[in-house]
Amino acid sequence: MALSLAISPCPNDTFVFDALVHGRVPGAPPVEVTYADVDVTNTAAERGAFDLVKVSYAALPWLLDDYHLLPCGGALGRGCGPLVLTKGDRADLAGATVAVPGDRTTAYLLFRLWSAGQPPARIEVVPFHEIMPGVAAGRFDAGLVIHEARFTYHRHGLTALVDLGEWWEADTGLPIPLGAILARRGAVDPVAAAGWIRESVRQAWADPAASREYVLAHAQEMELDVVDRHIGLYVNEFTADLGDAGFAAVTALLDRAATAGLVPQTSSSRATAWTS
Prior knowledge:
Number of strands: 11
Low-confidence stretches: none
Structural class: alpha/beta
Strand content: 15-25%
Distance between the termini: 24 Å
Helix content: 25-40%
Mean pLDDT: 93
Oligomer: single chain
Number of helices: 12
Order of helices and strands: EHEHEEEEEHEHEHEHEHHHHHH
């Protein structure tokens, strides 16, 4: 039977999963794919809607009873954090309305940790593609953005008030955990699933041109330079294996958020023991 897979249409996801989606991973079952932004998959995963699903690390406390965290395939790294964008030279967010891409995204969780001492006046959850135009038009005072927006925000006349990845790395010394891949308990063998994903990653790196048409067919930003920079930044050694540093970053994020009362408490062993 086919496995249901939900990933974003972003170049890093389509690049990583190209071989698996197109049946080029030996021994892997057929895959039926749904493409959706991570705020949609976070909610769908709470309903157990997919066998394999890309979610925000910030959503893990609500999902680990039903899903295994896989040690590969996600988005985690250095120099790749969310940005808080404003128009002009705004120095802080006092009294501001801030647009965010989802209330259980890692970007928003990092934002809440960073802004705890001086939170903005209002938060609005809006589709990601509306954030930068909305800030540029004055609909929002600031916007929280991820992924390819790092490379294109200047085109909207916007300024980065803070790079939350730089803030996180300076404060913790750890990479920033953004998106995780989960396998539904009882539906997917997590060890097998990790093997399929690692082989898909291996093939993507071995022949990057093989996925080009597929990646561009789903990318919101079609410029080849932006697509290539996006993949180069978000597909890295942590994509193949989280390793000790990756799991430490996940644990640190969830522990800090739980201590601040922003997410339910999740034991480190529950978050990282992906085969249990």
